[in-house]
């Protein structure tokens, strides 16, 4: 079974419901059709103008059968959750009327619909930019327990017959945090391991804390946070037999068995890493794009992690197929 079929099979078992705020986008409508037609998930889409959605779908020959298109009626939302939101915004100086007006926006309405327990995930970002998605997420959803840093990962899917990587590998963080400190890198590692377990239940997570140095091969103050983050993460995962963490490790020592054996003998991660935690956003963003453009990997994401509930931030260049697969990933338990 290929990775695409694996993801869809896992999601189908969940029988979840996803909300797609960008009902005015043809790609999103196509993804919604795929999700419902293939029995992956039920779909709800909020709209300020339902007839306009139907018009866009008709012109694109998209069948909306089985898709729930709703008006953004505040009565559909949990009153207690609305009050929490209004009270929290009041502490920031936002008056009640303006806070309630935010909930008339498809993105904020969808987040509150999720917070109200009406669905299992919110998939957005095909049109709305990252700043908008994250702002709405922070305002309404908040961070997961024990996590202070919201981050992202890419599921990097290798091309057939790749000489080194035979199975999908996770890259984090490649889209959100410009320069995380040691505790931030620890949070990124924890969140990514959690998502790895959802995607690959029963498989061992091997986390490499990346650097330009392997086990002291270089000496620089910029290595300090990676070394500290490695130690913190190792402590956090101590006793979990299905998770290995090591660092600082160079990229080649992380993924090439012969290099890992030579540079970090005895390491359970070196040469076997399936999660790569980059030291900063420069490295992460450049790294995934090199793998995608030069290496022929499919980069699925960025997929937001560290929030209290499943919310995505799609690339604005996402295809309907990308949205379809990421929606499936967001539903995994």
List keywords for this structure.
Rossmann fold; six-stranded mixed β-sheet; five-stranded parallel β-sheet; 13 helices; 11 strands
Report on the architecture of this protein.
The protein is of the alpha/beta class. The protein has 2 domains: 164 residues, Rossmann fold (3-Layer(aba) Sandwich), CATH 3.40.50.10950; 149 residues, 3-Layer(aba) Sandwich (Rossmann fold), CATH 3.40.50.10750. The chain is 43% helix and 17% strand. The strands form 2 sheets. It has a 6-stranded mixed sheet with strand order 8-7-9-6-5-10, sandwiched between helices. Strand 7, helix 9 and strand 8 form a beta-alpha-beta unit. Helix 2 packs across helix 13, helix 6 runs parallel beside helix 7 and helix 8 packs across helix 9. The longest helix is centred in the middle third of the chain and has 18 residues. The relative contact order is 0.17.
Lay out the secondary structure.
Elements: H1 3-14, E1 17-19, H2 26-37, E2 42-47, H3 50-59, E3 68-71, H4 79-90, H5 96-102, H6 106-115, E4 121-124, H7 130-141, E5 151-157, E6 169-172, H8 182-199, E7 205-210, H9 224-236, E8 243-249, H10 251-255, H11 257-263, E9 275-277, H12 281-293, E10 298-305, E11 311-313, H13 320-330
Helix pairs in contact: 2-13, 6-7, 8-9
Unreliable segments (pLDDT under 50, ≥5 consecutive)? none
Portion of residues within helices? 40-55%
Q: Strand order, main sheet: write it out.
A: 8-7-9-6-5-10
Number of helices: 13
Q: From the alpha carbons, calculate the radius of gyration and give it in angstroms.
A: 21 Å
At the first level of CATH, the class of the largest domain is Alpha Beta
Strand content: 15-25%
CATH architecture of the largest domain: 3-Layer(aba) Sandwich
If you consult CATH, what is the topology of the largest domain? Rossmann fold
Summarize the main sheet.
6 strands, mixed
Q: Tell me the domain tally.
A: 2
Number of strands: 11
**What is the end-to-end distance?**
20 Å
Structural class based on helices, strands and sheet pairing: alpha/beta
Mean pLDDT reading = 94
H and E order: HEHEHEHHHEHEEHEHEHHEHEEH
Categorize the overall geometry.
globular
